[in-house]
């Protein structure tokens, strides 16, 4: 959509929860895309990017990522192949992409996918780039991804926040006992508060105005997770499983115990924080998600209720 909250040269293609949003920054000879979505929706990404809500038939010169999780860079290879654009990633993410392995972007550990790609340049916190007729600042955004960046345009006070802040949350923060991730996420929220953005374009969900209200809500959740890592672990298990279900579209209930037993992230979280065997973890997971309305169940098959 081309939201009225933004300059005409800044466009947001809002996606479902398997994909991240795509941000299109239009400027003749220097059209930029921020983030590319999940690899299994590459054809839909290319169609929407080329259409009236995106480039509207114009060429793409550069693709920039906020971070290198699979829902934000899984479409990099397809976009670069279709458009001939260059790819720029956060400097800290290069170690996850080169060399490309089955563990790159969480694929083996988290049962996620992405098409291998080559990047042409990196950005670090403090760097700037020109796009959409404005200068954008790269801001460190650790927490959900410790190497992530946000991009801030100070004239209009627009923040492309990636997964550091959504209107009603943020990307999950890995559970830990007195570890660095929650503290880093809190520091990122303080950076956003100091920027005082007028409009936030999140990685998921619609652009919004009330950054202060969202920051307060996320801070409260992070404080609760810091006090109770098991609560955070339950949250992360559910987020990861729903993401996998959005990718697969359906799973047989009888297969879920084997699935969580063979996918390393679930066993790691349960062994460290929950103390549930595979069958108990699967039973709790399905019951909790069904009660929350995140999945539906019929004839022994579960499906996601949200849009992919």
TrEMBL record:
SUPFAM superfamilies: Metallo-hydrolase/oxidoreductase (SSF56281). Its main location: periplasm. One of its GO terms (biological process) is response to antibiotic. It catalyses: a beta-lactam + H2O = a substituted beta-amino acid. Pfam families: Lactamase_B (PF00753). PROSITE patterns: BETA_LACTAMASE_B_1. It is found in: Periplasm. GO terms for molecular function: beta-lactamase activity; zinc ion binding. Keywords: Antibiotic resistance, Hydrolase, Metal-binding, Periplasm, Signal, Zinc. Its EC number is 3.5.2.6. Signal peptide: none annotated. Its cofactor is Zn(2+). One of its GO terms (cellular component) is periplasmic space. Residues 19-204 form the Metallo-beta-lactamase domain. InterPro entries: Beta-lactamase_class-B_CS (IPR001018), Metallo-B-lactamas (IPR001279), NDM-1-like (IPR050855), RibonucZ/Hydroxyglut_hydro (IPR036866). Belongs to the metallo-beta-lactamase superfamily. Class-B beta-lactamase family. Monomer. This is beta-lactamase. It comes from Usitatibacter palustris.
